[in-house]
Amino acid sequence: MQITTEDYHEFKPLLFSLGYRMLGSITEVEDSIQETFLKAYQIDTEDIDNKKAYLCKIMTNRCLDVLKSARYKREQYIGPWNPEPLLIDQPASYDPAESILQKEGLSIAYLRMMEFLRPEERAVLLLREVFNFTYLEIAAMIDKKEENCRKMFSRAKQKMAPVQDESLDYKNNKSIIDRFIQAFQTQDQDVLLELISDKVTLHSDGGGKVNAATRPIISAPNVLNFLYGIMKKMTGDFDFEVKMVNYQPGILIFIQNQLQSVFSFYIYEGKINEMYITLNPDKLRVQSIGN
């Protein structure tokens, strides 16, 4: 059985979905996909009877290599590190409820929490919970014993517990974000404090390339003061729009028609518990993946 061009088009969205959840970086994922198929083309695949599992195995191990080699780079990163936002250029008729990729493991909150897992734990969690591979299949993919994979999955689930109850109801979340924007524009403090948690935390990612808070900002008053400070500093042609970011409502900020930042949110029990501002220009790209 040979890997074909048709296989590339069929499995690329799947590999992108796996790699993005593992790495949180679109550029690294795209490079890993190319290397996965290059390796698959070069290897004798006569004994391969499951192309999906075979390609996922190569992609997973490539992502593990990237994660291990990037550890020092991540440790040296200036300020909070946010995953590269996935800005979805969906058609006008798109219904977010129909997407098979939106539900597990794609929110910014989930991807940030993945940073606290060891690389192998990430792989096991995603392959089992999101992509429904058996423990036996996962063990073969990452060259571990089946029982070890079960233990890694259990540990990973415990570490991910803080975001397990995140609301992914797109329509309800968009209603909250719309109300937040209106209240922020009118400086309606009562509504703002109704919509955000008292202990809300803001993570501002500039990567040392643009001005951003180098430490998380905690508490409703501090976060609101920080946001108002940003607004006062904005000059020139300023605009914003609510768009789909990681299959959840987010805010895109434009200055002189150029994307300047992306706001994402972690919503729990009807309140905004965390905000993520991505300003690093290297992370502000529009990427569309199949629904």
Automatic annotation (TrEMBL):
Residues spanning the signal sequence: none
Organism: Gracilibacillus kekensis
Biological process, per Gene Ontology: DNA-templated transcription initiation
Gene3D superfamilies hit by this protein: 1.10.1740.10, 3.10.450.50, Winged helix-like DNA-binding domain superfamily/Winged helix DNA-binding domain
Domain annotation RNA polymerase sigma factor 70 region 4 type: ranges: 109-160
RNA polymerase sigma-70 region domain residues: 8-71
Pfam families registered for this protein in UniProt: Sigma70_r2, Sigma70_r4_2
Subunit structure: Interacts transiently with the RNA polymerase catalytic core formed by RpoA, RpoB, RpoC and RpoZ (2 alpha, 1 beta, 1 beta' and 1 omega subunit) to form the RNA polymerase holoenzyme that can initiate transcription.
Membrane-spanning segments: none
A GO molecular-function descriptor: sigma factor activity
Protein name from the UniProt record: RNA polymerase sigma-70 factor, ECF subfamily
InterPro entries reported for this sequence: ECF_Sigma-70_Domain (IPR052704), NTF2-like_dom_sf (IPR032710), RNA_pol_sigma-70_dom (IPR014284), RNA_pol_sigma-70_ECF (IPR014303), RNA_pol_sigma70_r2 (IPR007627), RNA_pol_sigma70_r4_t2 (IPR013249), RNA_pol_sigma_r2 (IPR013325), RNA_pol_sigma_r3/r4-like (IPR013324)
Domain of life: Bacteria
